[in-house]
From TrEMBL:
This is Uncharacterized protein. Belongs to the cytochrome P450 family. Pfam families: p450. Its cofactor is heme. One of its GO terms (molecular function) is monooxygenase activity.
Length: 530
């Protein structure tokens, strides 16, 4: 009532006497509803010609994730072909599910599609945004060039003794656990220790036996790692993340304002994520600051190498301001731990369930030389061809990163469809890896399909298997992680054999995060070899 009186007096002032208030209210309401509808549907409208299933208002196709689980995109590719839409809430993704089109997006048309889209879990986490993964255009290429220069093969080769000593120490845990171990937990600790040393020159001391008791600063380290694990596992791609992440899926425009408010309200998940990310940032800044002050640095770790480059080159100094330096260093921990650990656990799980593969693998490992002969980086690359096949097949079978996010930076034609600037184009290596055209009987674990002499391998499209991505934006850590995984498998199989623990579910259950993870872990029993 009071509002209508007020409105009338305002209207009278402007000479609008006699205008129907109801009509104005109705027009405003219709305008508002249309505005919201346009906001929600505009992104879908721009790519409407690309085929895809009907999407639900607000949630898009997220409900299909619940229905089909990890196979959702393979299912849709069968129905809609090699390029189709999948809506994450309001945001349509154009999914690329053929090897030839992946090559087109990742290599041939790279200059039109050079960056990654930033999904809502990352948009709500400033900590994750300034690493190489999400930086864009010229900043990205300058950062990548500097980072690649510290990934020389000689640098990797120098890391073999460091990796080996962590592996040997972690393997001692196996002796203590007669009833079996949760291998995926041990491998995450090992991978975190290795990357902690390689990236920061810091010994987290997580994987050595009795780590919690021995480590001088165990409480602080455990706290840091727990924060890291929490921060990473909260980057959910479904509707179970923090409120601001879920809102980011539905209405991105509201995500940042809500995050700013919610992070100040104790008890909310946004508040917890923010506190934890702050804690990680502070700890990282401290590590970076301490390293920067050191006169004599251990030049084997990534951070020291970048700091040295910064001291000698003005351009690098300008590029790596402290926030970017902390972010790329943290990114190493993030990218280097969960991915490598998941892949290592997959290898151990799959070999443990396939005695015929185990037999061939043991023959190759035993044939390399005496049990205490540590392979060099070159040996690892050239002298373990069957191990290579086992790792590739394990990565195909359980692909840690089944999606690769990219975004068009101008209008570009892909697969016969014109995609406007700003379209999210996501490659689907997970679909390619399970496509029977590329991999006959995809549900069978057959390392021999990667034998360079076999017909299946010869006939396969060269980009049908891209676990590390492709083109100028491919993974920088590929050689690093393969070196670590091979050294670990060789060391473990020289001493032990493994079987599935009877306590483990079958088939293995997986969960979606920013990378794939094992829901209940990989549990194995261990037997010492005679
Ligand atoms: C088994 C282990 C790993 C897998 C499966 C993996 C997978 C991937 C994939 C699929 C991409 C996206 C590539 C693309 O867009 O084409 C990527 C990018 C990246 N990875 Fe890895 N990765 C692994 C280990 C590592 C390690 C150990 C590090 C660091 C030492 C690392 C650092 C990065 C970085 C920084 C990028 C972004 C590159 C850029 O945008 O220029 N990754 N990784």
């Amino acid at each position: 009532m009071a509002v209508s009186v007020l409105l009338r007096s305002v209207m009278a002032r402007f000479g609008l006497v006699g205008v129907d208030l109801f009509a104005i209210g109705f027009t405003l309401l219709v305008g508002l509803v249309m505005g919201v509808a346009m906001y929600l549907y505009a992104p879908s409208w721009r790519v409407r010609r690309v085929p895809g299933p009907p999407s639900l208002p607000l949630v898009g196709h997220v409900h299909l994730l619940a229905k089909y689980g990890p196979d959702v995109l393979s299912h849709l590719a069968n129905q809609y072909g090699p390029i189709f839409r999948f809506h994450l809430g309001r945001q349509p993704l154009v999914i690329i599910a053929s090897a030839e089109l992946c090559k087109e997006v990742g290599i041939k048309k790279f200059k039109d599609i050079p960056n990654r889209s930033i999904p809502s879990p990352i948009a709500s986490s400033p900590l994750h945004q300034k690493g190489l993964f999400f930086t864009k255009n010229s900043r990205w290429s300058s950062m990548r060039n500097t980072i690649l220069s510290v990934y020389q093969p000689s640098h990797l080769a120098n890391l073999v003794p460091t990796m080996q000593s962590y592996i040997q120490s972690a393997a001692q845990n196996l002796e203590a656990e007669k009833d079996g171990i949760i291998f995926s937990q041990l491998s995450l600790k090992l991978a975190t220790d290795v990357i902690g040393q390689a990236a920061f020159g810091v010994d987290f001391g997580l994987s050595s036996p009795g780590a919690a008791i021995n480590s001088k600063n165990s409480a602080e380290v455990t706290d840091f790692i727990n924060k890291h694990v929490y921060s990473t596992t909260q980057l959910k791609m479904d509707l179970s993340g923090s409120f601001s992440i879920v809102l980011g899926l539905l209405a991105p425009i509201l995500q940042e304002p809500f995050r700013q408010v919610l992070k100040r309200i104790p008890g909310t998940m946004d508040n917890k994520v923010d506190r934890i990310n702050q804690g990680i940032s502070n700890r990282l800044n401290q590590i970076v600051e301490n390293r920067a002050k050191e006169k004599l640095r251990d030049s084997k770790n990534f951070l020291s190498l970048i700091l040295e480059a910064m001291e000698s080159e003005k351009a690098t100094r300008k590029l790596f301001t402290s926030d970017y330096l902390s972010a790329v260093t943290y990114e190493h921990l993030l990218a280097g731990s969960a991915t490598t650990s998941f892949t290592l656990s997959s290898v151990m799980y799959l070999v443990a369930g396939h005695p015929e593969v185990e037999k061939k693998l043991l023959a190759e490992i035993d044939g390399f030389g005496p049990p205490d002969l540590i392979p060099t980086a070159q040996d690892l690359q050239n002298n373990f061809p069957y191990l290579d096949q086992v790792i590739k097949e394990s990565m195909r079978y359980y692909l840690v990163s089944p999606m690769i996010a990219r975004e068009t930076s101008r209008d570009v034609e892909v697969g016969g469809y014109m995609l406007p600037k700003g379209t999210w184009v996501w490659l689907a290596p997970g679909v390619l890896a399970k496509d029977p055209k590329n991999f006959p009987e995809p549900e069978k674990f057959k390392p021999e399909r990667f034998d360079p002499d076999c017909e299946e391998q010869k006939n396969r499209h060269p980009y049908a298997f891209i676990p590390f991505g492709l083109g100028p934006r491919a993974c920088i850590g590929q050689k690093f992680s393969l070196q670590e995984i091979k050294l670990t498998v060789i060391h473990l199989y020289r001493k032990y054999v493994f079987r599935h623990s009877p306590e483990m579910e079958s088939p293995l259950e997986l969960e979606f995060g920013i990378v794939l993870n094992y829901k209940h872990g990989v549990k194995l029993t261990v037997t010492r070899r005679q």
